[in-house]
Amino acid sequence: MTQYSDDRVQDQQPGLESEMSPKPEYHPRFPGAGRLDGGVAIVTGGDSGIGRAAAVLFAREGAAAVAILYKNEDEDAEATLEAIREEGAEAMSLRGDVGERDFCMDAVSKVVERFGRLDVLVNNAAEQHAQDEFEDVSEKQMEDTFRTNIFGQMFMVQAALPHLKEGASIVGITSVTAYRGQDMLIDYASTKGAILSFIRTLAHKLAPKGIRVNGVAPGPIWTPLIPSSFPPEKVKEFGKSSTLGRPGQPNEVAPSILFLACEDASFMTGHVLHPDGGAMVAD
């Protein structure tokens, strides 16, 4: 079994994939089948982790262009752009904070201006801050977590809607914590519950326009959020309590995102997929 490092805990959010040990697995595992042929996608938090894996998989599946939004992880973002281009798609990155509405509006406008369309939006960007005691969760931490995790998804949808046509797809990343909670991540889990409700409500709202809205609720996945959130002893044991006895990899989540984004899921909206290592949840 892979040993997850306990000596490279990071002190900044959302964390750097380039500093992780071992490195997350993001490369697609299978040949592409053209399921996003010619499409244009935006992936928030696309510099690393699940976002990177989804962006690269989209490129392998024939997307004409994939744009990634990221906060400040320049080295990780460059690596993702290179991986997208190696798969044959055009790539674009935009640096900024999805918790700021103006950035979201500007980013979407720049993507559409450059590539002429927008077909898929993946709302993946998130932050989390572990606290042993809920009393220690500051007002600022609450505001930051909600602004990034749920406000950011709402802002991105507002920015994207004028450009999304019938057949377009929105995929929101929620979490197993929305269903089961997590006692060190109360504010984070609460935002993921809000995202779940947002997905389901938005699915009804946009169905008459032919725009599908679905979600993915990962379990313990080895991404930069882990070493940048938890103390060394938690990082070392991360994911071992899952039914499969290990954490998942980003490239084990990306296929769920792809499925919901493409026409394979043409009769699905308002649903959530659960790549979570076997956690029993009520959908």
Automatic annotation (TrEMBL):
Keywords: Oxidoreductase. The keyword Translocase does not apply. SUPFAM superfamilies: NAD(P)-binding Rossmann-fold domains. It holds the Pfam family adh_short_C2. Residues 1-10 have a biased composition (Basic and acidic residues). It comes from the Bacteria. It comes from Silicimonas algicola. Residues 1-33 are annotated as: Disordered. This is NAD(P)-dependent dehydrogenase (Short-subunit alcohol dehydrogenase family). GO terms for molecular function: oxidoreductase activity, acting on CH-OH group of donors. The keyword Oxidoreductase applies. Belongs to the short-chain dehydrogenases/reductases (SDR) family.
